[in-house]
Amino acid sequence: MPSTPTIAVIGAGAWGTALANAIANDHRSVTLVARNEPAAELIASARENPRLPGIRLRDTVAVTADLRVVAGAGLVLLAMPAQALRDAALALAPHVQDGAVLIATAKGIERGTRQFMTEIIAEVAPRAIPAILSGPSFATDVARGLPTAITLATADEALAASLPQQVGSTSLRPYHTTDVRGVEIGGAAKNVLAIAAGIVAGRKLGASAQAAVITRGFSELTRFGRAYGAKAETLAGLSGLGDLVLSCSSAQSRNFAFGIALGQGRSVLDAGEGKLAEGVFTAAVMLAMARSQGVDMPIAEAVVAVLEATATIDQAIESLMTRPFKAES
Fold first, then answer.
1. What is the mean pLDDT of each run of 10 residues along the chain (329 residues)?
2. Is 181-321 a CATH 1.10.10.10 domain?
3. Which DSSP symbol is given to 26?
4. Is 190 a catalytic residue?
5. Beta-bridge partners for 13
6. CA 93, 96, 97 angle in degrees (round to 5)?
7. Pairing of strands 30-33, 6-10
8. Secondary structure element (H or E) that encloses residue 209, with its range
């Protein structure tokens, strides 16, 4: 792979645009691929994405709708929701060069297959090298060039160590690891737990309850991660604890905002207000995976009960508060 590869970002939503802008911060050439020609033309002509108003695209960011550009890219970032990643990777696969690094940026687990993002890439684009980017990051902060630290993971140590130099910038600081599964689990689990934290906030249960949900939620995330081979230091790092704290404390988090709306009495259908909350899709599959490994995740279980309407919010809270007393673990 060339030392300074061409970089493509697939998905011109807020997150993909933010990543393209941040990566181009040090005058790299980045190609942002939109889903259709009208969207590409709008962003290219305005040099601004309507989903990130007031933030100008850097001059070194090119915009297109032609997927064939990935043929010249050594690094390709996939910036779309977890449940859409398979279709995107399938569309890219015929064009990707041998040995290109495909970096998933979604935080979730695919329903039905129970596969993580890098597993999907390995299956549908076998010529590429799968990687995952995750961590505490909001699109507006990243796009504006505010300091942000994230985690980049791929299985090969040498490649993992080289990726931060190729993706990082003066505003975007990636830390690398080979613990791919740990990074993926942190991102997926924190979305579900952020819904719980949002419900607590929406219900006005207080700062003490909020801290309890985050702390006990982290215990659940850790147990789940260990069951699936994650390293403790990864789960306690940016892509685990760091992302959990951010997502459970700001309404910029779609999952937290979704939970707030539920706590205020909105229905599951109305709570999202048309915005995607990844935790809604991940909750049930993560819980099923936890149960298959004998992992206790009562907060996640309560979230699933609320989402599937098998319990009201009050009943879910009562179920948590009436669990038998036990040692902290």
1. 67 97 91 96 97 95 94 95 97 95 98 97 97 97 96 98 94 97 98 97 95 96 98 98 96 95 94 88 97 97 97 94 84
2. no
3. G
4. yes
5. none
6. 140
7. parallel
8. helix 207-227
**Looking at the domain 6-178, which fold is it?**
Rossmann fold (3.40.50)
Residue ranges with strand state E in 105-196: 129-134, 148-153, 172-177
AA letter at 231:
K
Kindly state the tokens that stand for 82: 């977890």
- What are the sequence ranges of the domains in the chain? 6-178, 181-321
* The model scores a pTM over 0.70: yes
Question: What's the CA gap between 127 and 74, in Å, rounded?
Answer: 12
- The H helix count followed by the E strand count for the chain is 15, 8
Which class for 48: exposed (0-12), middle (13-18), buried (19 or more C-beta within 10 A)?
Answer: middle
Element (H, E) at 31: strand 30-33
CA dist 192 and 254 (Å) reads 11
Element (H, E) at 167: helix 157-167
Per-residue burial over 151-175, b = 16 or more CB atoms within 10 Å of its CB, e = otherwise? bbbbeeeebbebbbebbbbebbebb
Q: What DSSP character marks residue 222?
A: H
Orientation of helix 278-292 relative to helix 298-307, angle to 10°: 130
State how far the Cα of 208 lies from the Cα of 215, in Å rounded to an integer.
11
Residues 101-130 as b or e (16 or more Cβ within 10 Å = b): bbbbbbbbbbeeeebbbbbbbbebbeebbb
Instruction: Pick the catalytic residue from 190, 204, 275, 326.
Output: 190
User: Are the C-beta atoms of 17 and 32 separated by less than 8 Å?
Assistant: yes
Residue in this structure with the two tokens 């990082």, named with its chain if needed: 168
